[in-house]
Amino acid sequence: MAAKAQILVVDDEVSIVEVLKALLGREGYAVNSAADGEEALEKLREQTYELMISDIRMQPMDGITLLRKARELQEHLAIIMITAYATVETAVEAMKNGAFDYVCKPFKIDELLLTVQRALSYEHALQENEALKENLRTRYHFDNLVGDHPLMQRVYAMIEKVARTDSTILILGESGTGKELVARALHNTSRRREKPFVAINCAALPATLLESELFGYVKGAFTGANKFKQGLFESAEGGSLFLDEVGSIPVDMQLKLLRVLEEREIRPVGSTRNVPVDVRIIAATNERLEEKIKAGEFREDLFYRLSVIPLEMPPLREHISDVPLLVKHFLKVLNEKERRETTIEPAALRALSLWHWPGNVRELENTISRAFALCENQLVTLADLPPKIVELANQQCPGEDAEDASKFRGSSLKAFLRSKERDYISSVLEQCGGDKEKAAKALGISLATFYRKLGEG
């Protein structure tokens, strides 16, 4: 890797630049240099680099500003910051904005070379991991479903497995988890994909209107029925009919739906003849239908007809590690629509990852849409997020203020970051009600890793 790695050195001290060029050149690296931030950005626009080594104190553009802009230009650029003015605050600021490590002047040659090797190896591993994730997302790309947490991978695998069948599927999950997206994915990967996908929210209509909407009606069936109207079952002929909020269907209407599932025929309102239909039923609910059955509000026979294959969507709080991917996806959609290049600062992204998202993915999407509309200079910051999210982030991460950082003066950066990691793990554990297995899943790590990181001191 050393013979091929391209490194950019940025420092306004010519002597430092020459020393680093000579030192890294002897190790086989291809080294280029810039005397200030603007020159560095120009070189980054012209050529791809694997690593940038930059001083923090420079004029007119300081190293932290350069760091942010460099990462915007080259997402996979590893960055090492160097300075003679080492403080915990600047170290935290550098790491928060994407620096791999922080080296103090005067630096030891062996230590610097080791840091360079580690930075290149780490970024290379990240790129390989991202390529693997992209491969998984491409393989399991189901109509805007985003996420690579194991819980989501399980959903993708289930979709792929059952999409080829004509079995009735019941999608379970809280409001806002993406149940309709799953229904569309099931349709789009099935043999029926060239035929219509028709969706209806069963909770939006009263029983009388729901029946005529689903089955249609003939002329004169009721007052105002001046002509024949085709129902959604017939509109979806050969394709899929998605019954959202199926638990809200009144009991008398449930019997009629059950007959359709058993006989594969409908009878339009006011008609005396049955019409055969070839439709796959996909239903969804955010209610516990078993409890409605006990209360006499949902037919047990219909439940078993609908839930031939149950598919459960996890709430966002259980795959919180997917928040960055979802944010990236929503920003990409908005950027393409509005022809912008809006990004999000690390602090804002971290705050979003700390929120528990009771409204699930829909709440996150609405939050990003709001932030996108409010942000200035095409950058989403903490100021663009709802106050409740920012307030929780401040409570969970008090260590970024000067008082907390002062506790670590004289300590290594590694010790500081390990402490912050433990604090974050503890906060997630508290959000999960002390359930360690659930907390590990939310963090996207194994239970063994969870115990190890929580116990590190």
Describe the structure.
The chain has 457 residues and is of the alpha/beta class. Helix 10 (251-263) crosses helix 12 (300-306). The protein contains 20 helices and 16 strands. Mean pLDDT is 85; it is low at 137-141 and 399-406. The relative contact order is 0.08. Strand 4, helix 4 (88-96) and strand 5 (101-104) form a beta-alpha-beta unit. The chain has three domains: 6-136, 3-Layer(aba) Sandwich (Rossmann fold); 150-314, Rossmann fold (3-Layer(aba) Sandwich); 317-455, Helicase, Ruva Protein, domain 3 (Orthogonal Bundle). Helix content is 50%, strand content 13%. It has a five-stranded parallel sheet, with helices on both faces. The protein has a five-stranded parallel sheet with strand order 7-10-13-6-14. The chain has helices spanning 14-26, 37-46, 63-73, 88-96, 109-139, 150-162, 179-188, 207-215, 232-235, 251-263, 289-294, 300-306, 323-338, 346-354, 360-374, 387-396, 402-406, 413-431, 436-443, 447-455, and strands at 6-10, 30-34, 51-55, 78-83, 101-104, 169-172, 197-201, 216-217, 229-230, 240-244, 265-266, 275-276, 280-285, 309-312, 343-344, 379-380.
